[in-house]
Specification:
Layout (H helix, E strand, L loop, with lengths): L1 E4 L5 H12 L3 E6 L14 E5 L17 E4 L11 H16 L6 E7 L8 H14 L5 E6 L2 E2 L4 H12 L2 E4 L6 E2 L2 E2 H10 L9 E5 L5 E2 H11 L5 E4 L5 H11 L4 H11 L10 H5 L6 H13 L32 E8 L3 H9 L11 H13 L20 E2 L2 E7 L4 E6 L5 E10 L2 E10 L1 H27 L2
Parallel strand pairs: 1-2, 1-4, 2-3, 4-5, 5-6, 6-11, 7-10, 8-13
Antiparallel strand pairs: 9-12, 14-19, 15-16, 16-17, 17-18, 18-19
Helix pairs in contact: 1-5, 2-3, 4-6, 6-10, 7-8
Length: 472
């Protein structure tokens, strides 16, 4: 079948694409920026088109010959506007253009809706579902709560909290019940309903076999990891304090933390349905889903991560405009070093950041990350998805990977930290010489003052870093 896949660079889309290809489907991948798209295996069965569902002009790129269309566009973590309005506009534009095609079914992944008093996040999901259902094309809606898998936002937040805090003073929403589901089961449901007429114009809650409070989820994770943890719930933590608590302890952004806290006050438990029996899916329990997640992490095989989502204002215009590093009006720190072993140095470059650190002055990098976090930036908490592999679009501490061309021996990073300007960091190996270039384009007087203030530290950090990379 010919399948249109939106949100293909997102957490779910990256997991869904290879499974669709394995089943022999032809997949049309909608991306806002082709430079950020890197399927693990390019084949004749993949067609890539640039589409921004907030830009009606770009919708003309969508072909007429489509059998199934997945709507996987979510904006809860965005920092560049009202995510409810953005999701509604995307849904309207998607429905209007899909109705001009030969599509037989829309498949939408939504959230479990159990209350009339919904969070903004769940209310937006319900509104999108209504918009899509208003069209002439049959829709199948799968409603999930907490999704547990390597790289998922829920799993990474739980992981951060339990691994970092032996004693937790927590808000009362940790007593809220939910029904977590393994990412593997989510993909099975999404594949299973393809072209299934029994599921047309129907909604299904999907969840795992366990109904747990968030406190129980934290404690079961701790038990699985053989960690002793104490959790004390107090009623004094307001939603704002809870959001800051998540923001400073975990790797989540403040916007996402705020929306998650808003959602976690609402129970998300599945209404009964027979879809799991119809599709013959074997549900994985919560601790089993944790085990599967760590199998991926320990084998350095994390397929997708919520941290790679392109949500900041900085990147709202796409990666393409940032690929050409400017020269005019910029400050540059250029350093060169002869290499003893270019292959070994290239491996070091491709392993930079995350647990490997930045090879020199790591404590200064951490201080800079903490300062960024204090003013609402991403800080150094995001780490990296894989230990030794990088691709365009990946988050790397407080950088975003723009170019990761191992064959050309070039890595280009763009800063997502809060800055009075724009910053690039480039590593390039030519003729057995490593060229390391830091570029800063200042914004006004504040930008220039910033550069001169950090210049002494740059001399210390960048000199040490290139020497460590060059030495094997």
């Amino acid at each position: 079948m010919r399948i249109l896949l939106t949100g293909v660079t997102g957490y779910i889309g990256k997991r869904l694409l290879p499974v669709l290809l394995e089943q022999g489907h032809d997949v049309i991948c909608c991306v806002r920026d082709k430079d950020r798209f890197y399927p693990s295996a390019i084949s004749d069965h993949v067609q890539v088109i640039e589409v921004d569902f907030l830009d009606k002009e770009s919708l003309k790129n969508i072909p007429l010959g489509i059998d199934i269309a997945y709507f996987l566009i979510h904006s809860m973590a965005t920092q560049s506007g009202d995510f409810q309005q953005m999701e509604a506009e995307c849904a309207n534009n998607f429905r209007n253009i899909i109705e001009k095609t030969n599509t037989q079914q829309i498949i939408y992944l939504s959230g479990i809706i159990n209350s009339d008093r919904l969070s903004k996040h769940l209310d937006s999901r319900r509104n999108v579902e209504s918009i899509l259902a208003d069209g002439r094309i049959p829709i199948t809606t799968l409603r999930a709560g907490i999704i547990v898998g390597s790289g998922s936002a829920s799993f990474e937040i739980i992981r951060d909290l339990v691994e970092k805090l032996p004693i937790m003073i927590t808000p009362k929403w940790l007593q809220t019940k939910c029904q977590p589901i393994a990412i593997r089961n989510v993909i099975e449901f999404m594949i299973g309903v393809i072209a299934n007429p029994h599921t047309f114009n129907k909604s299904y809650d999907i969840g795992g076999p366990d109904i747990l409070s968030y406190k129980e989820m934290l404690l079961q994770y701790a038990a699985e990891r053989k960690l002793r943890r104490k959790i004390y719930i107090i009623p004094l933590m307001t939603p704002r304090l809870s959001s800051y608590w998540l923001y400073f302890v975990t790797s989540t952004s403040y916007n996402l933390a705020k929306n998650l806290v808003d959602s976690m006050k609402v129970e998300v438990i599945c209404k009964p349905n027979n879809l799991v029996d119809e599709l013959g899916i074997k549900l994985i329990n919560y601790r089993g889903s944790i085990q599967l997640a760590f199998q991926k992490i320990e084998s350095d095989n994390v397929v997708s991560s919520w941290k790679d989502a392109q949500t900041s204002k900085i990147l709202s215009g796409g990666l393409t405009r940032l690929l050409e590093v400017p020269s005019y009006g910029c400050f540059k720190d250029i350093r060169k070093a002869s290499l003893q072993n270019s292959d070994a140095s290239l491996t070091k470059i491709w392993s930079i950041g995350g647990n490997s650190g930045w090879y020199y002055g790591n404590w200064l990098w951490k201080i800079r990350g903490f300062m960024d976090q204090l003013v609402g930036g991403v800080g150094m908490r995001r780490g990296r998805k894989n230990k030794s592999d990088l691709a365009a679009g990946d988050a790397l501490d407080f950088w975003r990977v723009l170019i990761a061309d191992r064959k050309a021996k070039r890595l280009l990073l763009y800063a997502e930290m809060k800055l009075p300007g724009e910053a690039w960091l480039e590593f390039k190996i030519e003729d057995n010489v490593l060229i390391q270039t830091a570029t800063f384009r200042p914004l006004g007087i504040a930008g220039r003052l910033y550069w001169y203030a950090v210049w002494p530290f740059h001399g210390f950090i960048f000199r040490g870093m290139i020497n460590r990379i060059a030495t094997t």
